[in-house]
Amino acid sequence: MGSIQKKQVGEEPLGREQLGTKTDVILDAEAIEVRNLSERNKRLVKGGIAQFREATGDLAKFALDHWSVADGHRTPVDEDVDVLVVGCGFGGILAATRLHEAEITDIRMVDKASDFGGVWYWNRYPGLYCDTESYIYLPLLEETDYVPSAKYVPGYEIQAQALRIAEKEKLRDHAFFQTEVNSITWDDKSSRWTCKTNRGDVCRARFVISAIGILHKLHLPGITGIEHFKGHSFHTSRWDYKYTGGDRYGGVLEKLKGKRVGLIGTGASTIQVLPHLALSGAETYIFQRTPSAVDERVNPQTDETWFKSLPSGWQDERADNFDKIFYGGEESVDMVDDGWTRHIYALHKQKDNLPYAERLKHADNIQMELIRQRTKNIVKKSETAEALQAWYGRACKRPCFHGAYLEAFNCPNVHLVDTNGKGVSTITRKGVVVGDRNFDLDCIIYATGFDWGNDYSARANMEITGRNGLTMSEKWVAGPSTFQGMIGHDFPNLLLFTHLQSSTSPNYTHLLSERAKHAAYIVSETIKRGANSVEPTQKAEDAWVEKLENIAAQYLDFFKLCTPGYLNQEGQLSKFNLRNASIGLSAPQWNDMAAAWRKQGDMEGLELDGQAAVQQKAT
Ligand code: NDP
């Protein structure tokens, strides 16, 4: 393998200017490809998408709600509503807001949590931030008149915005918390969904909006022995402050001092948690299967004068600008100008004749090389710095940004246990085993992420039964099947907010906002046209699925060469399961498609009460 050389990399840890725009790094692209492939091959044996363990049965304790203040007991209700919204995260909140705008107010909202916020309700681990810019990530800033404290804000500030919108829209009156929807079943005669909850409620709804989120069902590593560990253990999304001390506002985890703590996983959650464990004085063992690529993040406080001078409509404009640049569109200005956009934006300034894809690949290689160099510059022990090198294409795994993660490895109480791609072997009564090494621990923290699988009913934890007893799992047996990624034949009046067969974005709340607009339009148009049911024709759905499969096929070669992760079905994405791909239209493409479709006004592809909506309008 050839060597990777640089003409010039500064002695200082690389700063923002360098990471975004430097092009004087000389790369041996062939050597990088060989190394990327060999690292990927090591990890193919991870066991694919089915490797993880659910937090059920003996492991159910991992999913308990630490934040609820009451047991949630109440008298069950039996009711009829216009719209049932499943989920009180930003998806559900935005759905309700858009429904209100369409003057649809007979809404029931349900969530297993005991308050609004979704992932920002559950995740309260120390150091939690969103590294998508707050000015575009926090929805409805103009409507709520809220000024975020900084460019990137902590989790509690994000949840506060969810609560602020919920108060403004008076959503609390509509919400059942600590309540799980167990099943929804379509009844053709009444054109209603019957929803049953774990609290004994029965709710008949004309429409259901399923805004369950994509990261709500935590999972544990696919290893044996988790249930046998005699020390303390929890998942990052259920941080146990009673055990660790400290709080979500930055208080030091003082109860961990002197304890031996294991942290399994090195994704975006760990990147933020580790510096806090380092500070606590715990002997921290961090078990790594695949290193994250950790770029820097500059986080200035908000300049209120600037913020208040922004013209009406600025937030959507800024969010659109971000998505367009992220997806390679040419924009005259990079409004957000951060680690998500800067190097892509810079591509358009380069004047050469190479095709865009080639330029992007080259820019990504440079970016990854600079990140590897940054790691070496910061981490003092060369063996540790080497083990932390990320070898894959930048789009293979979720990029991470943090100013203190790499520094944490210089603390004498932080120990990287690199598993050379193999992962933790097993958990025993006493601790963690990696190969032939045993690590006795007082506490194990699982930073092992969330179910990203495509069995929608399993992920939603609810049985969804459409027309003629057809379940969603049966319909999706060969992978998701939808029209516009939102609605399916034989499942009338059910609108899904998901990234599948549609689009995704690092700015997920903007995506939710666009889905909410679209769902509210479909619901209100169906009602306005005096129809009881709306669903796609089978033909329209099949055409959509085929279109999205064709798009995914274009990225197959790239994702096949990626290290396994949730973006490529843990290495199992192939031409036979393209429907499961997390890749589809770009966010701007989906948003433009949906806006144009609404503007056209004939609900093309949908049928109302079994008749094509287009024809109905014509008659
Ligand atoms: P991830 O799914 O990103 O990471 C899970 C980690 O667990 C991976 O490092 C994985 O390794 C590791 N793992 C799984 N099984 C084993 C095993 N047997 N042995 C050792 N390691 C194992 O979860 P996160 O909670 O970190 O993040 C989930 C998502 O949440 C992110 O991708 C992001 O979208 C979002 N998020 C965003 C944040 C932000 O805005 N800053 C912060 C936190 C989360 P491997 O990579 O090899 O599979």
UniProtKB/TrEMBL annotation:
Family under the similarity heading: Belongs to the FAD-binding monooxygenase family.
PANTHER family: BLR3857 PROTEIN, L-ORNITHINE N(5)-MONOOXYGENASE-RELATED
Swiss-Prot/TrEMBL keywords: FAD, Flavoprotein, Monooxygenase, NADP, Oxidoreductase
Protein name from the UniProt record: FAD/NAD(P)-binding domain-containing protein
Required cofactor(s): FAD
Lineage, top ranks: Eukaryota, Fungi, Dikarya, Ascomycota, Pezizomycotina
Coiled-coil blocks: none
InterPro entries: FAD-binding_Monooxygenases, FAD/NAD-bd_sf, Flavin_mOase-like
